Known about the structure:
2 copies of one chain form a homodimer. Chain A is built from 16 helices and 9 strands. Chain A is α/β, with parallel strands linked by helices. In chain A, the strands form 2 sheets. Chain A has a 7-stranded parallel β-sheet with strand order 1-4-5-6-7-8-9. In chain A, strands 2-3 form a two-stranded antiparallel ribbon. In chain A, helix 14 (285-292) links the parallel strand 7 (276-278) and strand 8 (297-302). Chain A binds chain B through residues 95, 159, 161-163, 165, 168-169, 171-173, 212, 214-217, 261, 263-264, 281-284, 303-306, 308-310, 313-314, 317, 320, 324, 339-340, 343, 345, and chain B through 95, 159, 161-163, 165, 168-169, 171-173, 212, 214-217, 261, 263-264, 281-284, 303-306, 308-310, 313-314, 317, 320, 324, 339-340, 343, 345.
Amino acid sequence: xxxxxDLFLRALHxxxxxxxxxWLMRQAGRYLPEYNATRKQAGDFMSLCKNPELxxxxxxxxxxxxxxxxxILFSDILTIPDAMGLGLFFEQGEGPKFNKRIEAExxxxxxxxxxPSAELRYVADAVSTIxxxxxxxxxxxxxxxxxxxxxxxxxxGGGSGDDFLGVRKWLYSRPxxxxxxxxxxxxxxxxxxxxxxxxxxxxxMVFDSWGGFLPEAHFERFSQKHIKAIVERVHAASIPLRRRxxxxxxxxxxxxxxxxxxxxxLESIAxxxxxxxxxxxxxxxxxARGRVGSRCxxxxxxxxxxxxxxxxxxxxxxxxxxxxxxxxxxxxxxxFNLGHGIxxxxxxxxxxxxxxxxxxxxxxxx
Amino acid sequence: xxxxxDLFLRALHxxxxxxxxxWLMRQAGRYLPEYNATRKQAGDFMSLCKNPELxxxxxxxxxxxxxxxxxILFSDILTIPDAMGLGLFFEQGEGPKFNKRIEAExxxxxxxxxxPSAELRYVADAVSTIxxxxxxxxxxxxxxxxxxxxxxxxxxGGGSGDDFLGVRKWLYSRPxxxxxxxxxxxxxxxxxxxxxxxxxxxxxMVFDSWGGFLPEAHFERFSQKHIKAIVERVHAASIPLRRRxxxxxxxxxxxxxxxxxxxxxLESIAxxxxxxxxxxxxxxxxxARGRVGSRCxxxxxxxxxxxxxxxxxxxxxxxxxxxxxxxxxxxxxxxFNLGHGIxxxxxxxxxxxxxxxxxxxxxxxx
Lengths: 366, 366
């Protein structure tokens, strides 16, 4: 069954679009009163993630309210380490934390192969529930954290105030052990994303939120090559999967890779084979297009702080962002998004202003 | 009187050097037991900054221990907002905080013109005390935070866990007020650096620690142009100052600009007119050299986490860093440094290993 709105997938495949599609990282979140109401009903954040019906409800809220062009599974980038037994939790007003952390080689050896269809069954259930509820209005994006970013949290036991210095220490003291952990995570992330595709995800995204903290000399070895392995596994597995789902184009499920702080390494990120590359607000979209725009679609890159400003500034920033990408010609693709997740302090009306500005302005660039 | 060791200044002026000079950001710090002893004597961090004799003592400690090629004034990047009445303090294990913060236009209007020779007399006294104690062994670097970075702290009231989202909000809601604050800081930082030069600083460095959080579209307007104005003021004022100090070369005091996270904007940073540009560990030194190396010297860029690793890794990383810059030919300059401040967890012996590795390996690249 065709999508009512397939702008997102067309842009991701660098096919012609009549306007620029838009969705926002963390679009189902605390800035929405309806989200807060559902979350209250669920209890805490992880209970909301683990309840397929309620996860479906919050996934659809921003689609219903703003008419965004893609839905993204409501979940967390850290479900895998949680399922591996590290015990993810969130304290009021704080970032993610783990009960246990990886401290030594033995902790890595002790990590068994994850069976997502058992330990992360709730995610597959959420995807199929959302997919059904969406009834082909817009495509659904599945996602996971990247191996490096998961390893950062698993070793550090939570977020970091010092660019994960303690994890970077491993690069210079036990790189082999770190690679063992990353290789286990490649398998887990791949299996997990493939499970999401099996359950109905139309595209998947890999978040390398902390890739930008890697030294340039080590980014490829400790992050890029592992993401590349995941893209290859997802592509290979998704071709027969999609055939069974009735698609006749022989194409794999498209992948988007986002490395926050990775603006200097776009060529390397594009070389993962991903169909889309996320761009944060420190990189000029037009320059990114010149470097990798003929190989992949670009997604981004408005500063989330712009949504805390006035409507006049939001309209100006949307126009500037669209113009920085430039005229949308054949063979390039732009998906409008923020350069990072939306802030909890965003007035919902400002998101409506952004969506309207993209709809009004982007056709002029065609 | 000539320096016993002027490698640092020669590299900064892109003149021939027989080996690569090295100093480390935050080289006088908590990783040194002798520093901790002096700090205990002073009481807290700010009391140490404000005591010229003890500030001199800690400034010289890493020179004495490691034979580094430049000394840097022991102080903090936030002395200016402190002198403007915001009340800087440090709590155990936490970053800098202010008693008062800039919340509205009226708070900016209320900031008077700073007279560094009165309110920051202790810094001039520290510089002249250190300069005397050094007795021309190596050059002395003075420094300040950049206007944007100072504004981040002044508006936020301290550090930030969200890339200074609340400050970036000003870009989109009251950019004019923010510019007023930045312009006041241009005058204060310039006057402050000129005072340090008058007291004996041989070079000055501007730390734009949070410049990398600016969106690319706004970096020039909210940070670069203000740093450029400072470089121009410092250059203009230092020519007659140096003449009075007995220098006959007619040259200004050299300036180093370091924008953490600014690797994508090196051309713009070099266009400030600074003699040296700091490079963090996310940028390849050789690529940086290709982009701006004929206009300015480059300083950096070892990951500080490498100093937490094994000696074998430290030697390999030093060699890799020197090789990434490439053969040191005429008209280019490289000053070895870290890509950010040294960690408090660094074993001092690892710094000795680094200094020795630079001394042993760098002559081979000539």
